Amino acid sequence: MILELDCGNSFIKWRVISVDGTQRLLAGVVDSDAALFESLAVAPGLRVSRCRLVSVRSDAETEQLVARLRESLGVDAVCAQPASQVGVVHNGYEDFRRLGLDRWLAVLGAYHLGQRACLVVDLGTAVTADFVSASGMHLGGFICPGLPLMRDQLSTHTRRIRYDRQVALAALQELEPGRSTAEAVERGCVLMLRGFVAEQLLQAQARFPEGFEVFLTGGDADLVRDVVPGAQVVPDLVFVGLAIACPLS
Ligand SMILES: Nc1ncnc2c1ncn2[C@@H]1O[C@H](COP(=O)(O)OP(=O)(O)O)[C@@H](O)[C@H]1O
Ligand SMILES: CC(C)(COP(=O)(O)O)[C@@H](O)C(=O)NCCC(=O)O
Ligand SMILES: [K+]
């Protein structure tokens, strides 16, 4: 079995696939290294022979996780590394090492699935949009705060924006003008995300008049999916790219 990890700024997404890559056997989302090892400890029938991961965390945090994986599972995790090119896909950053590895892998995964020009939007702690041309040229992208950062900034920098987490979840059932603080903030922030995505769509239409594919991923992808009716929502997009960047043969 192959253990795959996508270590974002807020959550670690993990999954276990068969060695030939054809079956997804187990999957989960955890908020810490400790929770990851707890989940793995109780995973039924788990026998990990290989491991690959991508991390946007600090090198020290990533090295610590790799060491713990070695201790507890006896595997040496292969970590995705920056690259200026993989196959026909070219990294568009001035310094390719600076492009977030989750973005790079999502771009590789999207181009692999789409085989044409792509707009890739990843809605997590941060929201990122990346453009890839039909020939595989990554043209760069945009970064803005994601939903958790927007709401945290509002509560951190105001005195009276305070509301219950449960109320917040209920507030997103619809997007009418809010009639409570929770509704006003939650819906306002979701509309920011939706406006951002709509703008990216306009940019893609202008850049790729011959057509393009839109891929949505990240924990908050569902909040914007109907802004782009033809979009493919691919929760595992980073893992698709991880398999391309880190083949385990
Ligand atoms: N089951 C879930 N577990 C955790 N976060 C979720 C879940 N469903 C939706 N979310 C949303 O996804 C966001 C995190 O997205 P994610 O792509 O995991 O972020 P990151 O890669 O930055 O860690 C959370 O802030 C939350 O708004
Ligand atoms: C933009 C990001 C913070 C997104 O992280 P995430 O929301 O997935 O946790 C990450 O891709 C990153 O640290 N990028 C480095 C900066 C850049 O891509 O330009
Ligand atoms: K993201």
Q: How does this structure look, described?
A:
The chain is α/β, with parallel strands linked by helices. It has two domains: 1-78, 2-Layer Sandwich (Nucleotidyltransferase, domain 5), CATH 3.30.420.40; 83-144 and 186-236, ATPase, nucleotide binding domain (Nucleotidyltransferase, domain 5), CATH 3.30.420.40. Helices cover 37% and strands 24% of the residues. It is built from seven helices and twelve strands. It has helices at 33-41, 59-73, 101-114, 147-156, 165-171, 181-207, 237-245, and strands spanning 2-7, 12-17, 24-30, 50-55, 78-79, 85-86, 89-90, 118-123, 126-132, 138-145, 213-217, 232-233. A five-stranded mixed β-sheet has the order 3-2-1-4-5, sandwiched between helices. A five-stranded mixed β-sheet has the order 10-9-8-11-12, sandwiched between helices. A two-stranded antiparallel ribbon has the order 6-7. Helix 5 (165-171) crosses helix 6. The longest helix has 27 residues, at 181-207. The protein is globular, with a radius of gyration of 19 Å. The two termini are 13 Å apart. Potassium ion is lined by residues 122, 124, 126, 128, 218.
